[in-house]
Each structure stands twice: as structure tokens, then as C-alpha cells.
Amino acid sequence: MNPYKFENLMVQLLSVMGYKGDEGQALVTQKSNDHGIDGIINQDPLGLQKVYLQVKRYAPDNSVQMPEITAFSGSIKLKHADRGVFITTSTFTQGAINAAKDLNITLVNGEMLTNLMIQYQVGVEVKEHYMTYKIDGNMF
Fold first, then answer.
1. Contact 90, 56 (CB under 8 A)
2. CA dist., res. 101 & res. 139, Å (int)
3. pTM of the model
4. What's the helix, strand, coil split of the chain in %, to 5?
5. Considering the chain, what percentage of its residues have pLDDT values greater than 70?
6. pLDDT tens profile 76-102
7. How many CB atoms are closer than 10 A to CB 7?
8. CA 67 from chain center: how many Å?
9. What pLDDT shows up at residue 104?
10. Among 100, 120, 138, which residue's Cα sits nearest to residue 10?
11. What is the C-alpha separation between 112 and 24, in angstroms, rounded?
């Protein structure tokens, strides 16, 4: 999947999860020169409450490290914001996790991302559905 399409998918996921509120907006920033911000979620119609997103489509063995978290924190601070969500298809180093806690950044790793996509049915579709049955002992 190309990176811009992935950014769109992640903004859509957070929208479906309810982060944009009833009348908010969710947008993907421009493809380049986005200053480290891949998506913006306006949680209210006036855009007074914003959540900024950073999205990294990394290989499983390429963990997000602390400098990427602090750079993202700097980007959201320049927007006068106090929160952000950093999503990756891989994992985070312990340094990145510690920095995120201190900087009010929510982390979503690949495993959590997969679970959220399935739970909210974004970017996935049911291929087959199985039902299993057991005998109801109360009926016999």
C-alpha cells in the first residue's frame, strides 16, 4: 500500500472509532512538507479540539525510536496542540514508549492496529463466517 493511501486509511480508522465526534472533520495532510503531521482530526465543528496523527508504515523489525516521538511532539507543539497519536505497523522501542508517556502521545503498534482494524472493520472485510453449535442440555 502506498504511504499516502495508508495515511488515509488511518484517518478513516480514527474517524470510525469516534474521534472526530458527531460534527467534526478528519483530514489527511498534503503528501509532502507536512512537517511531521500526517492527519488532523477536528473533534468539534469549529476545530477547537484537535488530535494530530503521525503514521509510519515500517517493516516488523524496524521499531519506532525515541527521536521520532520527540520530533512528532515538536510538530504538534508548533501547532499549539497538546496531544497526538503515533501509529506504526511495527513496534516501539522502550525509549519511544517512555517519551510518549511524558509527551502525551498515544502509541498504536502493529498488533494493536490490526486488532482495531478488525474491531472497527476498516480496511478489512469478512471473508468467511463460521458458526459452531452445541446441544442445549436444557432442551433434552
1. yes
2. 54
3. 0.88
4. 35, 20, 45
5. 99
6. 999 998 889 999 999 999 999 999 999
7. 22
8. 19
9. 94
10. 120
11. 25
